[in-house]
Amino acid sequence: VQESTVGSALRSAAAAAPERTAIVAWGATPAERRSWSFAALLQDAERTAQALLTRFQPGEHVAVYAGNCPEWLLLEFGAALAGLVLVTVNPASRARELDYLLRQSRAAGVFHGAAFRGNPLAAWVAEVRAGLPALREVVPFADWAAFLDAATGAARPLPEVLPESIAQIQYTSGTTGSPKGALLNHRGLTNNSRYYAQLIRLQEGEVYGHAMPFFHTAGCVMATLGTIQARATHAFLPAFDPGRLLELIETERGAVMLGVPTMVIAMMEHPDFSRRDLSSLRVAVAGGASVPPEIVCAIET
Fold it and tell me: In sequence order, what are the residues at sequence separation of 6 or more whose Cβ sits closer than 8 angstroms to the Cβ of residue 98?
């Protein structure tokens, strides 16, 4: 049976492999590591959906402006279960760009991190908020626990979500004009990620390790929804760091990794490369830019 919505894909995985590890999130420090089984991920996603429905109506647009973190993924799944449309915002976007995306997408809410690679995300959200009358709700990820508390005792039925319902709005880079919002539906996202997982022959229980940004389809679709449908483990970093990604692959016994060529080259040139045990790695996926044959040979070697 092929899953046709983000929510049904998660429910199917939780039913088939409830105790298997679904997510391993490495934090900003080496000691910070959190994990969820498929059953726990579904439980937290449903609680997120209930909390969202205390503030938003199905069909409304909710933006996320943060680096990679577990709450980002819980919001992705929760929004899908609640029938909301997730607007993904590059955390490298500055205040002017953030203002444009929130305005153009008609976002009713935004969830945000405190900072990302020196960018003061919280300050920029506060800067643009007054000029966006449609933006009713602003929720810092630092207040995530309090946000979820709103769902305590809630047991409302979650809405029916159709395969053709819009799940996400992702924006083009805007190199030839203003960024354009691409409407991505549930069926398209689940098909794309499932076909990708099949193409790389991702197996049940394997670990998929990466540091691709969640605001992009490589992170929140191919990695996130591909591992869900393959019943594999999704292990990720908050942002790309070549030494830490090598460490993650060694520690978590990663079988598959994904990176743009610049990332892969940085990993191979890192001082730790020769001392890391990468014997678990079966597939290295590289894309997003031209991959010269000599780089392919170097990766394979």
Answer: 65, 89, 124, 125, 128
Q: Which two tokens stand for residue 56?
A: 């938003």
Tokens linked to 265: 């080259």
Residue 117 contacts residue 92 (beta carbons within 8 Å): yes
Cβ within 8 Å of residue 73, ≥6 positions away:
23, 214, 220, 224
Per-residue pLDDT tens over the stretch 86-110: 999 999 999 999 999 999 999 999 9
Instruction: Tell me the whole-structure pTM to 2 decimals.
Output: 0.96
Q: How far is CA 207 from CA 117, 232, 265, in A?
A: 27, 6, 21
DSSP letter assigned to residue 116: B
Rounded Cα gap, residues 101 and 106, in angstroms = 8
Residues 139 and 146: beta-carbon distance below 8 Å: no
Distance CA 49, CA 297 (A): 46
Instruction: Give per-residue pLDDT as tens, 6-38.
Output: 999 999 999 999 999 999 999 988 789 999 999
